[in-house]
Each structure stands twice: as C-alpha cells, then as structure tokens.
C-alpha cells in the first residue's frame, strides 16, 4: 500500500494536471517553513497519528500512561529524524542535482539505501528504540553498537527497509525537492502505522491450546 500510494502520487503529479493545486500547496508550505515543516510533519506522521491509531483502534479507546510516554518518545525521535532526512535530501541534491533524471534518481536511491541507511539511519533508529526499551538508560544500550547486534538485529532491519523503501524513495526522488519531504511524511505515516499494527499483534497472547487426549494404551 505504501509503495502503491507513492507511485500513484508520482503518476498524478506528472500526468494529472488537476492534482497540481494540492502539490503546490504542499510545496509552498515546505518552502515557507523549511526545516520547521520537516519537524512538524514528521511529528504528526510518526507520532501523533500512530498513537491515535493505537489508542482508538488497537486499544479500543483505553488510554494509559505508557501511551503518553510513547507519544513523547516518538515525537522527539521522528521530529529529529524528519530534520535529518531533510538535510540528507538537500545534501543529495547538491551532490547529484535536483533534476529527476533516471541516473540522478538511481544514484540517490543507491546512496540512500546502501550507504546512509546501512551506516547511519537504521543503526541510529535501533539504538533509539533500544534506549526506550531499557528504560531510557544510556548505560544499557552499549550492545546496540556491537558487531553481533549488527548481524542479528540491524541486518534484518535493513532487509525490511530495502524491501519497503527502495520503491518509495525512488518515487520520492522522482519529484521536485519541495515535494519530497511532504510525501516522505505521508509514506512515514503508513510505515509507522504498519509497524504499530504488527507490534500489537505480536503482543497479543496466543490462546491456550486444547489439550490432546491421552493415547490409548493396552
């Protein structure tokens, strides 16, 4: 769904003139607010909407103090991540240009997925979540920077990132720079909602199995 939505938006931008008004509004907001837009849109996409989804749908309206902790954590993390991604996209534009030609898009996707994410983005994200899972104690996250952790946790996370995000960032880099962050925020909304749903399902206890009858013996 994430990939289909991004591809549909790219096609709409280039082939549906009636959609240009919406794209112009997003581009104007990004041009006016800059990094502030990146921070705010990432907080809404990565923290507020997923928390609302979790409380309203997965928890059926039941709230807890943990929900507030999760909201604050996600807001801090994704807000900063939005600013970092914005800076990285600008850096890519300086390095490779902003015209969405095939070779420009390909270079940006390769650097994004196989250098930026491999060296920084995925290890950085996992370290943040390890910090949260260990009660926000920095002394407990040293293992997140070991070779064994990279092999057992970071590489599987990278594989999931590549599967989902290679088509998504290909679509993002095919758009003008002022539209990349607004549509990144849209993709982020779907991504974080999906992660919240999967995590919630993993935490649901399995029903007790029906005991099998004792075997008949002579």
Report on the structure:
The protein is mainly α. The protein is built from seven helices and no strands. It has helices spanning 2-15, 20-33, 35-58, 65-96, 102-133, 147-173, 177-202. α1 runs parallel beside α6 (147-173). The longest helix is centred in the middle third of the chain and has 32 residues, at 65-96. It is globular and about 50 Å long. The model is unreliable at 202-218 (pLDDT under 50).
How much beta, percentage-wise?
under 5%
| Number of β-strand runs | 0
Total helices: the number is: 7
Assembly type = single chain
Q: pLDDT average, as an integer?
A: 85
Q: Could you give a short account of the major beta sheet?
A: none
Return the string of H and E elements: HHHHHHH
The gyration radius over C-alpha positions equals: 21 Å
Uncertain residue ranges: 202-218
Q: In one word, what is the shape?
A: globular
- What is the percent of helical residues? over 70%
N-to-C CA distance: 58 Å
Class derived from helix and strand content: mainly alpha
